[in-house]
Amino acid sequence: MPSRSELYELVEEPSGLESPVLVYWFDGFIDAGRAGGGLVDHLLATLDTEVVARFDVDTLVDYRARRPEMRFADGAFQDYDAPELTLRLVRDDVGSPFLLLSGPEPDVRWEAFVSAVTDLIERLGVRLSIGVHGIPNPVPHTRPLSVLTHANRPGLLDDAALVDVELRVPGNVASLLEYRLGQSGHDAIGLVARVPHYLAESEYPQSSLTLLRALSATTGLLLPSGELAEAARRTDELVREQVEGNDQVAKVVHALENQYDAFAGGDTRGSLIAEQRAVPSADEIGAELEQFLAELDDRADTDDDRDDDPGDR
Question: What spans are recorded as compositionally biased (Acidic residues) (predicted)?
Answer without folding.
Answer: 298-313
